[in-house]
C-alpha cells in the first residue's frame, strides 16, 4: 500500500471483526459497535482511501471502486497478519464486503446493511435502489454546503444524532472517490454481486432499517441466497439507512448474535 490508510485496532486475542463505513463517512461512525465488541473481539475499523484520516488515492481510477477498495482492505488485513475475520459493511462498505466474498477466503462471515447485491449494468443496479436525489449525490464530485448537510443527514437517518464529525467526514471526502466509484459501479466492468450472494457459502447476514429510503427492500428480499443467516433479511422498525448508528441498542445484539457462531 503506497497511500496511508488510517486504521483503528483494539488488538487482543479475540476473533477479528472489521467494520467498513459507507460513502463519504469515516470509521468513527462505528463508535457504538466498537464499544460493544471490544474486550471480547479484536475490533478493527479503517478509513477508506479518500475518506477520514486516510490519504487520498495517488491512483484514484484504480483505487476508487468497490474492487479497488476491497483490495485495499485486504492489504490492511494481510499487513496485520490476520488469518480470519468477520466483516460488517454499511452501504458502500457492504458492497466492499460483497467483493471480498470472491477475493478473500479468510473472511469467514459477512454482515451488510443498506447494501443491495446487484448484477452488472446500470439497469440492474437501479433495481436494487429507490429513485432519489440522494443517488445523484452519491456520485457527485463537488459538494456544496447544502449537499454536505443533506448527504450527511440522509445517510445517517433523519432522526439520528447528527454529530459534527458526520458532516466533517462528508466535507473531507475526496470528490473523485464518489465520482469514480459510482462510474465503476454502473459500468460493465463491475462485479456481479447478486451472483456472489447466490453462490457463496460464506454466512451472510443482512440487517436493514425498515425505513431505509435508498434501498429496494422487495428486491433484496427476492434474491435466492446461498447461505443467508436465519434464512431471512432482518429489518429493524423505526430506523432508516444506518440502524447501527440510529439505534445501537437494538442493532448491537443482532451483530453480537451473528458473531457468536464463529
UniProtKB/TrEMBL annotation:
- UniProt entry tagged with the keyword Nucleus: no
* Alphabetized Gene3D superfamilies for the sequence: alpha/beta hydrolase (3.40.50.1820)
Which keywords annotate this record? Hydrolase
Taxonomic superkingdom: Bacteria
Q: Which InterPro entries match?
A: AB_hydrolase_1, AB_hydrolase_fold, AB_hydrolase_sf
Q: Could you confirm whether the keyword Ligase appears in this record? A: no
A Gene Ontology term for the protein's cellular component: membrane
Give the Gene Ontology MF terms in alphabetical order.
Answer: hydrolase activity
**Which named protein is this?**
Epoxide hydrolase
